[in-house]
Amino acid sequence: MSTIRIPPVLRENVGGSRTVEVSGSTVAEAIEDLFGRHPSLRERITEDGKLSRFINVYVNERDVRYRDGLETPVGAGDTIILLPAMAGGTA
Amino acid sequence: MAAAGGHAARDILGTIGGTPMVELARLAPHSGVRLYAKLEGSNPTGSVKDRVALAMVESARASGALGRGQTILEPSSGNTGISLALMGRLLGHPVRIVLPDNTTLEREELLCLYGAEIINSPGAEGSNGAIRLAHSLAEADPDLFMPYQYGNEANPRAHETTTGPEILEQVPDVDAFVAGLGTGGTLTGVGRHLKHAKPGVRVVAAVPLPGEQVQGLRSLEDGFVPPVLDESILDDRYLVSNRDALIGVRRLLREEAIFAGLSSGAAVAVAVRVAREMASGAVVVLLADGGWKYLSAKLWTRGLDELSDDLASSLLW
Description:
The complex is a heterodimer of chains A (91) and B (317).
Chain A: E1 2-5, E2 19-22, H1 27-37, H2 40-45, E3 46-47, E4 50-51, E5 55-59, E6 62-63, E7 79-84
Chain B: E1 21-23, E2 33-39, H1 49-63, E3 72-75, H2 79-91, E4 95-100, H3 105-113, E5 117-121, H4 126-140, H5 154-170, E6 176-180, H6 185-197, E7 202-208, E8 236-240, H7 242-256, H8 262-276, E9 281-287, H9 304-311
Parallel strand pairs in B: 2-9, 3-4, 4-5, 6-7, 6-9, 7-8
Antiparallel strand pairs in B: 1-2
Helix pairs in contact in B: 1-2, 1-5, 5-6, 7-8, 7-9
């Protein structure tokens, strides 16, 4: 099991939870498991079956785009963070 | 940009750029790697944004987009606004800055001292909220000129033509470059220059993990990827919590006696991590501002837990 952290903007789709425990050995499997538990989330964060470009996915603080993407392996103790794209700070 | 020693600058704008590079031997995680910091706090208003503001204003004046005496409007959580306010004071442009209402007191005071007018946007909406408000003000008044650093190519170009070459001259054997991700201008511009000169250089972004109260998205479609950010330049991207950024900023002060701002602490945290994973080589980290504008937030003196909670609702980088 790994943990997915849900950003505030998506919590209404997961019954208000901040985190959801999921199974799966890759990020893709973990997110599929999340969709299975909270079906309304699928429509909110996917476009044409793919994850929205406004969602960044991090595993243990590292962006999966620069690792193996959604095939990045995850396991017990790993934290997956779904983070909406936002304007940065020291602007 | 900055005069290379010896003679007087024509005015304060001539002192922008040409910032020092210093080795961080005490923070390097092992003896195989060298870690260096580019001290952007040495710019006139104390941040890297002087380079960006100068480039945006100069190119707009040259193209005629910014007319004589025309008012400048810009969304900014502080540093860019202060830099633009300096330009406005010197070059005769009134400046209005849309500033989230949860930054530090120092920023508001500096903006006022340089003569800028502050328009507050709701802090809970973060930088996105300031950008939205600035766009609507600019649309309503065509006499305003908005440089818009998030979408202005002069922003990355300033780094491609000044910051990047300075880094390569100061650390010719640089293997990795780390900086915080805000507009994406620094990473895109420096990254372009370094990769053109040395294709194997890694460019790594430190991304703030926003506190929940400042994740002011009304919907996902509100999400925002800055147009000037060229994501293909990045080789890696790490999230940094406020807590880790604070630890970084304190290590900089305690171990290297460098007084820097919060995003510098985050960038250093990532640079140390990158350096740790390298067998040998040189890592350059850009410290975007000095610590002065954060004194009232007491980043160095308050308890870490209390401060981390507090930062969750403010916008400091």
